[in-house]
Automatic annotation (TrEMBL):
Keywords: Antibiotic resistance, Cell membrane, Membrane, Transmembrane, Transmembrane helix, Transport. InterPro entries: ABC2_TM, ABC2_TM_bact-type, ABC_2_transport, Nod_factor_ABC_transporter. This is Transport permease protein. Its main location: membrane. The chain crosses the membrane at residues 34-53, 65-90, 111-137, 149-172, 179-200, 206-227, 247-267. Signal peptide: none annotated. Belongs to the ABC-2 integral membrane protein family. It is found in: Cell membrane; Membrane. It comes from Actinoplanes oblitus. Residues 32-268 form the ABC transmembrane type-2 domain. It is a multi-pass membrane protein.
Amino acid sequence: MTATSPVRSAGTASMSLARGHVELLQFLRDRTSVIFTFLFPAMLLLLFGTIFGDSYEDTGVSASQVYAASMIAYGILTTGFVTMGAGLAMDREDGTLKRLRGTPLPIVSYLVGKLLLVLVLAVSEAALLILVGRLVFDMPLPDAAHWATFAWLFVLSVTACTLLGIAVSAIVRHARSAGAILNVPVVFLQFISGVFITPITVLPSWLITVASFFPIKWMAQGFRYVFLPDSMKRFEVTGSWELGRIAMVLGAWCVIGLVLCLVTFRWSDKDR
């Protein structure tokens, strides 16, 4: 038992990497997915940042810099939630998951392959948005302490969004409708979570309350802490960054997402 476990683990790891490579190649070959999943957040950043570029009162921080920080949350949500949810729905509908169930590829390697795709896309997405924010809108880069916050915030955000994408794929009956179904909550949450409309305090209090139950509001707030000066915290709902609450909310959504995955995951449409 102990002698074969390391070999089995190594085999699972190699199959996971191989599956991740396949997932990435399939994604890159689909130009529509590349544009709308990867490039669309950067295009929106350029649009919002150009139109709404005025400074925030006496802070010296432009609205475009606020958008640049907040849009990182949107990029992660798109790559994690939408990409994972649509990909699983497609694989379930065309029988890929059912066929994989009868092959030596364990489901763990399949899901890890999907996770590797999301991780590569999320890192690339964040890098692109930071690059646009820096070069186009002169967004300041954080110090080492803020980069450390960025690291745990990024990991929790990707994990929560990816797990929720796996869970929500169970309600998608047809892969062709996955984009519409998954993007509706994504767009809605951007408007009420302080991503598309800033500062968030201009929104009605009941909308802010609704947004507070979902991870995107806390993700955007955390990334604003990382990239914006401390003077900008007065534009948050409580007048502070609330890093502890951000960590707790995102951690709770990771647990919720995992439970939903275990409850709702299906190999095929016949498993409904």
